[in-house]
């Protein structure tokens, strides 16, 4: 499918008939190369609910990239029919740095070769950053607090000045996803059945996602360690609820890592099925109108 022309996104509250493609350059890497994160935005900017779906954070994991390619076709059709009701961000290849790391014919996309840093670890702690801004500003109004917290997170992220390409990638992805209601980070393993990682407090509200992708296992943890991308999006809400016990703070971001099977078994039919499953998840959460 050809990419649409680069266009500025519609203004907040103005629906888009198709996806807009946005390019976000990162700080130069050690060799001076500038990598670019590509985002496809569907729906109405600022609308609720908002979903962020990305693949290829470990750039050598391919099933999720293919699934999002086919999901984009489904979303293009939904947009043409006027069925999109929220805002959906699709990043089919979320890690442009890792996509350039070839050695002797093999793509090495799990860690940055310059630093050894894992592309799915070490994300900024939004609870710590936002809590400095939120002191004395939260109350018993849960909806108002969600808006205040998201604004504080955005303010804290805007104040950051990442200097390296890897930190710039982490910062950009979190800036795009921090205010989403739903975040799905698509991965794969070399040899594995489909499975899912999710925070214990978010279960069982996420069980439909496990069912849709036919997960053979669901791994639950309050904190898995290392601050991976999905937890960097969902854990701040639980942390802030502990930091401000007198305030009403709901778990406003449902985030999970979906492991879409074996990286050595990429299959077009399976990717299309997984795209359809992701589409149904978005329907169920109110981002897409179901047909009458």
UniProtKB/TrEMBL annotation:
Alphabetized GO MF terms: hydrolase activity, acting on ester bonds; metal ion binding
Q: Which residues form the Succinylglutamate desuccinylase/Aspartoacylase catalytic domain?
A: 49-225
List each coiled-coil range.
Answer: none
Q: What are the top taxonomic ranks of the organism?
A: Bacteria, Pseudomonadati, Pseudomonadota, Alphaproteobacteria, Acetobacterales
Q: Kindly provide the name given to this protein in its UniProt entry.
A: Succinylglutamate desuccinylase/aspartoacylase family protein
| Keywords associated with the record | Hydrolase, Metal-binding, Zinc
Please name the Pfam families in this protein's record. AstE_AspA_cat (PF24827)
> Has UniProt tagged this entry with the keyword NADP?
no
Tell me the superkingdom of the source. Answer: Bacteria
Cofactor(s) for this UniProt protein? Zn(2+)
């Amino acid at each position: 499918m050809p990419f649409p022309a680069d266009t500025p996104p519609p203004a907040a509250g103005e629906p888009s008939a198709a996806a807009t493609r946005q390019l976000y350059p990162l700080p130069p890497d050690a060799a001076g190369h500038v990598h670019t994160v590509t985002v496809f935005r569907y729906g109405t900017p600022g609308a609720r609910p908002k979903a962020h779906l990305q693949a290829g954070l470990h750039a050598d994991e391919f099933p999720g990239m293919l699934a999002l390619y086919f999901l984009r076709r489904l979303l293009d059709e939904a947009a043409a029919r006027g069925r999109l009701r929220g805002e959906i961000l699709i990043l089919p290849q979320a890690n442009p740095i890792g996509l350039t790391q070839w050695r002797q014919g093999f793509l090495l996309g799990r860690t940055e070769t310059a630093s050894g840093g894992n592309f799915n670890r070490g994300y900024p702690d939004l609870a710590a950053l936002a809590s400095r801004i939120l002191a004395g500003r939260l109350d018993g109004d849960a909806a108002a607090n969600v808006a205040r917290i998201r604004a504080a997170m955005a303010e804290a992220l805007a104040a950051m000045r990442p200097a390296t390409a890897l930190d710039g990638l982490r910062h950009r992805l979190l800036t795009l996803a921090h205010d989403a209601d739903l975040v799905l980070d698509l991965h794969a393993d070399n040899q594995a059945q489909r499975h899912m990682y999710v925070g214990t407090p978010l279960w069982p509200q996420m069980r439909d996602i496990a069912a849709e992708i036919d997960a053979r296992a669901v791994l639950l943890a309050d904190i898995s360690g290392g601050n991976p991308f999905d937890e960097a999006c969902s854990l701040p809400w639980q942390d802030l609820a502990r930091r401000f016990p007198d305030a009403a703070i709901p778990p406003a971001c449902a985030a999970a890592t979906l492991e879409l099977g074996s990286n050595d078994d990429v299959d077009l039919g399976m990717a299309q099925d997984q795209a359809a499953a992701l589409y149904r998840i978005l329907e169920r959460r109110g981002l897409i109108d179901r047909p009458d």
